[in-house]
């Protein structure tokens, strides 16, 4: 979860909060959770002590700040050496005692962690939340995660309503960096663009390089730069989608940030996640990043033209993916040579016909 990774600082290309041609009927409007003008905490009525935050800062005319806070009452106050200190709120900035004297009077415990935490809470990746933040219990982290994802999922459901209403097959393309997502996408668009309307939302930390490559195919694309962010979320897709202002039936491809961790947890309103794995990455990737492959409906094994030059067992790779997701579909292809691309186009058209 991104409640400990410090992600934030996104910018949507050309975005301004005027929402031209963004009309909702009365039923839609009251359910449209605009957070653009309010700073909503995921934990209701939490004090001002910010422990963890997602800070989506759309530069330019619009600024989105979404802070997730934990109550100050659950946070132990610590010095830089990790020792627990009790400080009154009206503690003066000028101290009448030295730091050494304060420590001499301080009762040290064998463990400097808060007493209310179980030992199992102190290990990274352990416990219910599967993440560790010093001084915060697994139960509190789990509650925070549920609040963050609940807020995202509410807006994702709203995005999905738009996509279904406009009969658009929306696919969330996810992979590690260098898997060949953009090359696969450009080759896909070159064939599909003459059959129906296509559009792309591109996610990267910096640059518009990939969006420029998409626009070179004459398909509209908008770049979302996430800055320190490691994934796209439903709010970013909402804003970018309305910036594109495409309402005709067709395909909307979302090329997520190259990352096999956080994008697995964030619903964007898509019909399916498509995990793209290149043969250069090894057959154990689905086992190393099980959440992503469990969330995907389709795994594309890309760059099969390199099979003579790399050490990978394709069948083992597929078996590993099905250990974490028994129903995942698999297509083997090369975006460069065109091998296997027909199977990919068949999958796209079959899923679009189900809209």
UniProtKB/TrEMBL annotation:
Residues 81-122 have a biased composition (Basic and acidic residues). GO terms for biological process: protein maturation. Residues 170-331 form the CobW/HypB/UreG nucleotide-binding domain. This is Hydrogenase maturation factor HypB. PANTHER family: HYDROGENASE MATURATION FACTOR HYPB, HYDROGENASE PROTEIN ASSEMBLY PROTEIN, NICKEL CHAPERONE. It comes from the Bacteria. Keywords: GTP-binding, Hydrolase, Metal-binding, Nickel, Nucleotide-binding, Zinc. Belongs to the SIMIBI class G3E GTPase family. HypB/HupM subfamily. Pfam families: cobW (PF02492). GO terms for molecular function: GTP binding; GTPase activity; nickel cation binding; zinc ion binding. Residues 15-40, 75-122 are annotated as: Disordered. The keyword Protease does not apply. It comes from Photobacterium toruni.
């Amino acid at each position: 979860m991104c409640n400990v990774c410090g992600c934030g600082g996104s910018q949507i290309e050309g975005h301004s909060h005027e929402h031209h041609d963004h009309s909702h009927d009365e039923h839609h409007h009251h359910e449209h959770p605009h957070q653009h003008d309010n700073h909503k905490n995921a934990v209701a009525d939490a004090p001002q002590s910010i422990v963890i935050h997602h800070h989506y800062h759309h530069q330019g005319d619009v600024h989105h700040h979404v802070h997730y806070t934990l109550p100050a009452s659950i946070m132990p106050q610590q010095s830089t050496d990790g020792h627990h200190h009790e400080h009154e709120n009206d503690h003066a900035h000028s101290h009448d005692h030295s730091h050494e004297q304060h420590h001499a009077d301080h009762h040290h415990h064998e463990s400097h962690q808060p007493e209310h935490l179980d030992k199992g809470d102190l290990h990274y990746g352990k416990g219910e939340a599967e993440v560790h933040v010093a001084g915060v219990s697994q139960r509190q982290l789990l509650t925070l995660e549920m609040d963050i994802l609940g807020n995202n999922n509410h807006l994702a459901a709203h995005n999905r309503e738009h996509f279904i209403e406009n009969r658009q097959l929306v696919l969330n393309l996810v992979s590690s960096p260098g898997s060949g997502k953009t090359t696969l996408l450009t080759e896909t668009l070159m064939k599909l663009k003459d059959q129906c309307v296509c559009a792309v939302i591109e996610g990267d930390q910096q640059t518009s390089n990939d969006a420029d490559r998409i626009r070179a195919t004459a398909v509209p694309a908008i770049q979302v730069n996430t800055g320190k962010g490691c994934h796209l979320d439903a709010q970013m897709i909402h804003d970018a989608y309305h910036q594109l202002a495409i309402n005709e039936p067709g395909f909307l491809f979302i090329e997520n940030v190259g990352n096999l961790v956080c994008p697995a947890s964030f619903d964007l309103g898509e019909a399916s996640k498509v995990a793209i794995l290149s043969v250069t990455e090894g057959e154990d990737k689905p086992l190393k990043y099980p959440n992503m492959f469990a969330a995907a409906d389709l795994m594309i094994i890309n760059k099969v033209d390199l099979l003579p030059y790399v050490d990978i067992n394709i069948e083992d790779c597929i078996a590993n993916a099905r250990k974490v997701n028994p129903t995942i579909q698999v297509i083997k292809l090369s975006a460069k040579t065109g091998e296997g691309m027909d199977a990919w186009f068949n999958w796209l058209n079959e899923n679009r016909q189900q809209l």
